[in-house]
Amino acid sequence: MPINADYRGPAELPEVIPVFPLPGALLLPRGQMPLNIFEQRYLAMIDDSLRDGHRLIGMIQPDAAHSPDEAKPALFKVGCVGRITQLAESGDGRYILELTGVSRFEVVQELSVLTAYRQCKVDYFPFIDDFTARKGEDDVDRAALLAVLTDFLKANNLKVDWEGIDKAPNEALVNALAMMSPYGPPEKQAMLEAPDLKTRAEILIAVTEMDLAKKRTSGDPPLQ
Questions:
Q1: Which candidate, 176, 195, 164, 194, places its Cα nearest to that of 34?
Q2: Which domain of life is it from (predicted)?
Q3: Average model confidence (pLDDT) for the chain?
Q4: CA distance 108 to 105
């Protein structure tokens, strides 16, 4: 999805960004994530990001395995910053918005701040390839990805827009399927931290194959 801002490299993004910890949420570069914002601290975060002009929010998962403080859980070290590309007011105090992913980042340091929402100093340079659209597409095994998608759809009695999938370039296809996948925080984090698109697709395929095998063995019902 095109966006008005043209981010050509890490230097064009702020070193300090607000972060939105959300378990199971996966945002990837050039992917779109809808959000329903209702907590006061995150409403303030959206207001501040618009007021500051950068319109950027860092999506990151809480690290439940290393979180002694439930009120302020530890964060994974890698997240993805997104730009607010759509925003609507609900009329009952909520924001309905869409983030478009820009680049992944590593958390350098969480800052002590006066805001109710959390802020981190981050580094985008480890993911400099994120600024090049469709990088590594030719290395993706599209046939294997579509095969496992077909098996997943059949196992769960789901339908999909195959015409749209056929037209989607590999980057959009891999990232959309990864973001929409029904897996937990560890699997989502592994896909986020994948070094390239090919590896992300391979992780998605492996996780899906394991999930399908587990369902066949256990007789679990399909997704509803």
A1: 176
A2: Bacteria
A3: 94
A4: 9
Q: Residue 52 is which amino acid?
A: D
Enumerate the H helices of the chain as residue ranges.
Answer: 40-52, 142-155, 162-167, 170-180, 185-192, 197-218
Residue of 196, 199, 191, 207 lying closest to 78 (CA atoms): 191
| Closest to 93 (Cα-Cα) out of 134, 55, 40 | 40
Lowest mean pLDDT among 106-120, 144-158, 173-187, 210-224: 210-224
CA 36 and chain centroid, separation: 15
- Give CA 158 to chain center in angstroms: 23
Q: What are phi and psi of 36, to 5 degrees?
A: -115, 105
Q: Name the residue ranges covered by the structural domains of the chain.
A: 10-131, 137-218
The most distant pair of C-alpha atoms in the chain lies apart, rounded to whole Å, by: 53
DSSP 67-106: -S-TTS--B-SEEEEEEEEEEEE-SSS-EEEEEEEEEEEE
Q: What is the pLDDT of residues 40-68, one digit of tens each?
A: 999 999 999 999 999 999 999 999 887 76
User: How far apart are alpha carbons 28 and 63 in whole angstroms?
Assistant: 18
